[in-house]
Amino acid sequence: MYYPDELIEEIRSRNDVVDIISGYVRLQKKGNSYFGLCPFHNEKSPSFSVSPGKQMYYCFGCGAGGNVITFLMKYENMGFSEAIKSLADRAGVSLPEPEYSEEMKRKENKRQRLFAVNKEAARYFYYQLRAPQGKPGLEYLSGRQLSEETMKQFGLGFANVTSNDLVQYLKSKGFEEQDIIDAGLASMDERYGLHDKFWNRVMFPIQDANHRVIGFGGRVMGDGKPKYLNSPETLIFDKSRNLYGLNFARTSRAKNIILCEGYMDVIAMHQAGFNQAVASLGTAFTSGQAGLLRRYADTVILAYDSDGAGVNAAMRAIGILKEVGLPGKVLDMKPYKDPDEFIKNLGKEAFQERIDNAENSFFFEIRILQQSFDMDDPGSATNFHREIAKKLCQFEEEVERNNYLQAVAKRFQIDPDSLKKLVVSYAAKTGGVKPIERPKSLTAHEGQKKNTPEENIKKSQRLLLTWLVEEPETYGQIKKYISTEDFTEELYRKVAEILFASLEKGEMNPASIISMFEDEETQQQVAELFNTKVVSLNTKEEKENAFHDIVYAVKKNSFEYYSARLGTDLTAIDQVIQAKKALEELSKTHISL
User: Fold this and answer.
1) Spatial CA neighbour of 306 closest among 342, 264, 268, 352
2) Across the chain, how many H-helices and E-strands are there?
3) Are strands 48-51 and 33-36 parallel, antiparallel or unpaired?
4) What is the DSSP letter of 36?
5) N or C: which end of the chain has fewer CB within 10 A?
6) Mean pLDDT, rounded, for 359-365
């Protein structure tokens, strides 16, 4: 889908990247940028950078990067046109009737085909559940006391025992084999050919926030393995940034979201009237899912199983919720294991009472922590109090920290002044509440690249492009030595051509350059070009020497690159002559910044 470049740039420029991303990721200002935990991979130390100056984001850990448009596409699993429409609505920009570029048309058509094949598969599973062959599935769901209305609301279905009936059905509806495979509904191998991924399972269609089927979960009938099987990740399905039941929970009038472990818990709770329930999708709760919940609720109540595994999962989820600044509470479901069992045995009124009295996540952590200490032993009790002091140091705001200190001292009968001294002592040893630290220049992502001569050549070109973006005034110092032809990597040269043309006009807008490339992987590579870091430079002299070395390295590589092509490329002669002259001049020239 195509919109004029000027319109895309207007929409992008009217949506501040920090404002948009802070709605998904908890950011903290550090220097000229903002940092937080990357929503695209799990990490404990923040390496996700958002630059208001560049209007870009970049993760020094996994390499994800781009502008506000690419962020929305990646995080919300949107197509380009969907992201543009969303941002245009936010900015109050009217969109004309769109046109299509071939690349955008191909991508958008692929996404729509995957939505269509999933929708048709959901219809097929739904029909099979109510057909004679679906009797095992229907008996299972009825045994779980689900009403026909509930089964219909969630589109529950059944995958037959046979191994390829879905494939045959979808092909009869005109769907291509590759689309069926790409939707995660079938696999191809030498022994069985093209065969269904799901069979002999009760099927749970997984929908995005807009009620589109993006994947499936299947619960096996009998003792087969695995018990639950989920769709693989596809072009339209990302497990880490979707939640089961969110399409209904997002419109709930409740002031909280209840986070469960499984599909059946969500369905049972919705049937009982708790339509704010959601669950993660066969994987552990992620920071991406926490950021998603932050958009729809002020508080998350954890309704995990009451066994040891459930407690551990709750402890982990509490930490993830803290990272995105979302308060959490923990539901006590004893003597029952999960919400489904609780509601069946005690009813929804009792469950509502448990919700109203859900335990503050901090006190839940302390209560679980206490179980590791012998409170009758003075030494063990003292160690427990020290651990409380450590946890109190996690609160950044002094008022909040003091409030919790007073409350926990009262609950566990600790002298508040003594506990405060422990907190102060621990903070003195560790530096107290540490702010988010800016990642080091050479990060894991950068360090993953082998230190080969070829990589060093590429890095010098990336460094020069980054330097020009961060300090555009340096362009005037080097344009007599460096041309776009000196960037010997094709992508780097294309970026340099756009960048140099902008600098000649006195303009600098790196975020707009990203939008000029349609492929997501290429956009990410361009973002990296503007976020390559050199070692820390403390003095003006160090900085000038480093910049000179980078410029010289780019020119020297250019000279060697075109020299090697003199026999086959006549146009290389001029490049070699100019490069040699520039190198001689550079070797004698001091570049002042």
Assistant:
1) 342
2) 26, 16
3) antiparallel
4) E
5) C
6) 92
- Which H/E stretch holds residue 563? helix 540-563
For 216-233, the pLDDT digits (tens) are 999 999 888 899 999 999
DSSP 301: E
The DSSP output letter for 163 is S
Cβ 298 vs Cβ 256: under 8 Å = yes
For 254-303, the pLDDT digits (tens) are 889 999 988 999 999 999 999 999 999 877 888 888 888 888 888 999 99
> Which CA distances in Å does 460 have to 91, 428, 548, 557, 581?
38, 42, 11, 9, 20
Q: Is the dihedral of CA 515, 520, 525, 530 positive or negative?
A: positive
Of the chain, the end-to-end C-alpha distance in Å amounts to: 44
Cα–Cα separations (whole angstroms), residue 402 to 27, 56, 399, 413: 24, 37, 5, 16
DSSP state, residue 96: -
Measured between alpha carbons, how far is 593 from 582 in angstroms, rounded to an integer?
Answer: 19
Whole-angstrom Cα distance, residue 266 to residue 262?
Answer: 7
3-state secondary structure of 593: coil
Q: What is the 3-state secondary structure (H, E, C) of 214-243?
A: EEEEEEECCCCCCCEEECCCCCCCCHHHCC
Residue whose C-alpha is closest to residue 479's, from 506, 454, 455, 458 = 506
Distance CA(322)–CA(328), nearest Å, equals 8
Domains of the chain: 5-91 (3.90.580.10), 102-237 (3.90.980.10), 241-365 (3.40.1360.10), 372-430 (no CATH), 449-588 (1.10.860)
CA 380 centroid distance within chain: 41
Rounded CA-CA distance 258/253 in Å is 13
- Give the pLDDT confidence score for residue 177 in this predicted structure: 94
- From CA 89, how far away is CA 30, in angstroms rounded? 30
* Predicted confidence (pLDDT) per residue in 520-555, tens digit: 788 888 888 888 876 666 678 888 888 888 888 888
3-state DSSP call for residue 515? coil
User: Is the per-residue pLDDT at 447 higher than 50?
Assistant: no
Tell whether the model's pLDDT for residue 136 goes beyond 60: yes
Query: What type of residue is 398?
Result: E
Query: What does each C-alpha distance from 444 to 63, 362, 450 come to in angstroms?
Result: 9, 32, 12
Predicted confidence at residue 437, as pLDDT, reads: 40
Residues 414, 385 contacting (CB under 8 angstroms): yes
Our CA angle for 200, 193, 221, nearest 5°, is 10
Helix (H) or strand (E) holding 28: strand 28-30
Query: What's at 565, amino acid-wise?
Result: R
Q: Residues 547, 593: contact at Cβ < 8 Å?
A: yes
Angle at 199 between CA 197 and CA 200, to 5 degrees: 155
Q: Give per-residue pLDDT as tens, 566-578.
A: 655 555 566 667 7
